[in-house]
C-alpha cells in the first residue's frame, strides 16, 4: 500500500514536471491528489513506527534504528543527484557549460540533515517546466523524522496505560493548529503560494507538522486501539464516504485523519492485500528517486516531445531500478545492521508492517 501511494505521488508530479499541466490533478477534490496519497503514507507510518518504538528497550536503540532506516537511503540519493543526475542532465541537454561541482557538493552538505536548504545544482534544470529543483518531494522527510522523534519521546515519557490518551491529545493539538491556520489563512497550498506571508514565524514549522502529524498520530491511535476496533465493511464504507465528502468540501486535512487511517487499516488487514505483499520495501526508494528521474526525463523531452501517458510510464519504469538499488545496496543492509542489537520480545501485533 505504501508503494502504491509512492507511485501516485510519482504520477501527479509527472503532470507538472513534464509540462503537461500547470497544476497537479484535483479530480474534483479541493486539493491535489498527491496530498491525499501523502496523508495515507503518514497514516501508515504512524502505525508502523509506534509498533517499532514499543518493541525497543529504550529511546537510544529506537533512535539508532530510525536513523539507519532513513539516512543511508537519503545520503545515497543526494550523492546520486550530485554525481549522476546533475552531470547527466547537462549531457542530455547538450549543454557546453561545465558542471558546477562546488554547487553539487553544497547540494549534499546543505541537505544532509533532511531539511531542504538547497533545491538544485547551479547550471542544471534551467529550461525545464519546473526549474532548478531536483527533489522537492523530499521536503516531507524532515517532518517525518521529527514525528518519529516526537513519538519516541512520548513513549518514553508516558506509561503504557496513558499512551493512548497522550496520542489522542497530540491528535487534538495537531487538529487545533491546522484549524487555526485554515481560519487565519496561514496555509501554503496549490491555490495560493503566498498564503503565509503574513503568518507568524512559528506557523511555517507548526502548520506542516500538524497537517502531516494528524495522520501520523491517527495511525498511532489505530495501532494502540487495534484490539478494540472492529473491522466492518459498513465502517469502511462510511470512512471512505466521509473522506470523499471532506476532500470535496476542503476539510480533508482537518478532519479526515481517523476515517482515512481506518480505511487503510481495513485494507491492510484484508487477505487480498496479504497475498500481494512484497518483501522488498521499495516505497522509500520510489519516493525519493521519482522526482529526480522525472526532472531528468523532462530535460530530454525539451527536444523530444511525447504523450503524457508515455512520459509517466517511462518515469515509473526508470525509477524502479534506482529504488531496487537503494533497497539492496543501502536500505536493507542498514536495517539488518540495526537488528543486530537485541530487543525485548513483544507479542506479535495484529498487523505486520510488511503489509502496509
DSSP helical segment count:
13
How many DSSP-defined strands?
0
**Biggest sheet character:** none
- What is the residue-mean pLDDT, rounded to a whole number? 89
Specify the overall morphology: globular
Low-confidence stretches: 190-195, 345-355
**What distance lies between the first and last C-alpha atoms, to the nearest angstrom?**
5 Å
Q: Please, how many domains?
A: 1
Estimated radius of gyration: 21 Å
Helix content: 55-70%
Strand content: under 5%
Instruction: Give the class from helix and strand content and strand pairing.
Output: mainly alpha
- In N-to-C order, the SSE pattern is HHHHHHHHHHHHH
Can you characterise this structure?
The protein has 356 residues and is mainly α. It has helices spanning 2-17, 33-54, 59-93, 101-110, 139-157, 160-184, 203-224, 233-249, 252-255, 257-269, 271-274, 283-300, 308-339. The model is unreliable at 190-195 and 345-355 (pLDDT under 50). This is Acyltransferase. The chain crosses the membrane at residues 33-50, 71-93, 136-158, 165-188, 208-225, 234-256, 309-330. Keywords: Acyltransferase, Membrane, Transferase, Transmembrane, Transmembrane helix. Residues 2-326 form the Acyltransferase domain.
Q: What keyword list fits this structure?
A:
transferase; mainly alpha; 356 residues; membrane; 13 helices; Acyltransferase
In short:
This is Acyltransferase. This protein is mainly alpha-helical and 356 residues long. The protein contains 13 helices and no strands.
Amino acid at each position: 500500500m505504501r508503494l502504491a501511494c509512492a507511485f501516485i505521488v510519482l504520477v501527479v508530479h509527472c503532470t507538472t514536471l513534464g509540462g503537461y499541466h500547470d497544476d497537479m490533478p484535483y479530480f474534483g477534490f479541493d486539493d491535489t491528489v498527491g496530498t491525499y496519497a501523502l496523508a495515507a503514507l503518514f497514516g501508515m507510518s504512524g502505525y508502523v513506527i509506534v509498533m517499532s518504538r514499543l518493541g525497543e528497550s529504550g529511546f537510544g536503540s529506537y533512535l539508532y534504528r530510525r536513523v539507519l532506516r532513513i539516512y543511508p537511503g537519503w545520503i545515497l540519493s543526494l550523492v546520486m543527484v550530485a554525481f549522476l543526475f546533475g552531470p547527466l542532465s547537462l549531457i542530455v541537454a547538450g549543454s557546453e557549460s561545465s558542471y558546477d561541482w562546488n554547487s553539487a557538493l553544497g547540494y549534499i552538505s546543505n541537505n544532509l540533515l533532511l531539511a531542504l536548504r538547497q533545491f538544485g545544482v547551479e547550471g542544471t534544470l534551467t529550461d525545464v517546466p519546473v526549474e532548478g529543483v531536483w527533489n522537492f518531494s523530499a521536503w516531507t522527510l524532515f517532518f517525518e523524522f521529527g514525528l518519529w522523534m516526537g513519538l519516541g519521546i512520548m513513549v518514553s515519557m508516558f506509561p503504557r496505560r496513558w499512551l493512548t490518551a497522550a496520542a489522542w491529545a497530540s491528535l487534538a493539538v495537531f487538529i487545533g493548529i491546522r484549524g487555526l491556520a485554515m481560519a487565519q489563512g496561514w496555509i501554503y497550498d496549490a491555490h495560493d503560494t503566498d498564503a503565509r506571508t503574513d503568518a507568524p514565524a512559528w506557523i511555517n514549522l507548526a502548520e506542516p507538522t500538524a497537517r502531516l502529524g494528524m495522520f501520523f498520530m491517527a495511525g498511532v491511535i489505530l495501532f494502540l486501539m487495534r484490539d478494540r476496533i472492529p473491522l466492518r465493511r459498513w465502517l469502511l464504507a462510511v470512512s471512505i464516504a466521509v473522506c470523499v465528502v471532506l476532500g470535496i468540501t476542503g476539510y480533508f486535512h482537518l478532519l479526515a485523519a481517523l476515517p482515512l487511517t481506518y480505511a487503510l487499516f481495513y485494507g491492510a488487514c484484508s487477505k487480498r492485500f496479504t497475498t500481494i505483499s512484497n518483501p522488498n520495501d521499495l516505497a522509500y526508494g520510489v519516493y525519493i528517486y521519482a522526482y529526480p528521474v522525472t526532472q531528468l526525463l523532462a530535460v530530454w523531452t525539451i527536444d523530444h516531445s511525447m504523450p503524457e501517458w508515455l512520459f509517466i510510464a517511462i518515469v515509473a519504469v526508470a525509477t524502479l531500478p534506482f529504488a531496487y538499488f537503494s533497497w539492496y545496496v543501502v536500505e536493507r543492509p542498514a536495517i539488518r545492521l540495526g537488528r543486530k542489537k537485541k530487543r525485548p520480545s513483544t507479542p506479535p501485533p495484529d498487523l505486520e508492517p510488511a503489509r502496509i
